[in-house]
């Protein structure tokens, strides 16, 4: 149901806290703080993140590279204007349905 809604409507449904957390994630990837995340910046951020996973086998490197490659491709797919970088509005628009989707269900 969320995927069928307009992106702007989904962004408007986000709480201030959800927007702040999303901005923090975006800022972590925006290494040079120019307001855009390039593929290189995304790859570094995801490699660092997945590199923290505790895996004690010899496949660790290839698994981390695979996860980072997949996450980077997903992040760069948000580059709607095809500029080679993802802007904050593109990031927030692209992530809104996922942010809303992981909200806990209210108890009745």
TrEMBL record:
InterPro entries: EF-hand-dom_pair (IPR011992), EF_hand_dom (IPR002048). It comes from Magallana gigas (Pacific oyster). Residues 17-52 form the EF-hand domain. One of its GO terms (molecular function) is calcium ion binding. This is EF-hand domain-containing protein.
């Amino acid at each position: 149901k969320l995927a069928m809604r307009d992106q702007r409507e989904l962004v408007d449904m986000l709480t201030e806290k959800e927007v702040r957390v999303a901005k923090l994630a975006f800022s972590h990837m925006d290494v040079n703080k120019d307001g855009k995340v390039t593929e290189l910046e995304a790859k570094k951020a995801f490699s660092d993140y997945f590199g923290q996973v505790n895996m004690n086998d010899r496949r660790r490197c290839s698994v981390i590279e695979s996860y980072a490659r997949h996450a980077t491709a997903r992040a760069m797919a948000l580059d709607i204007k095809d500029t080679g970088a993802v802007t904050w509005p593109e990031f927030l628009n692209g992530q809104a349905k996922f942010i809303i989707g992981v909200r806990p269900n209210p108890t009745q």
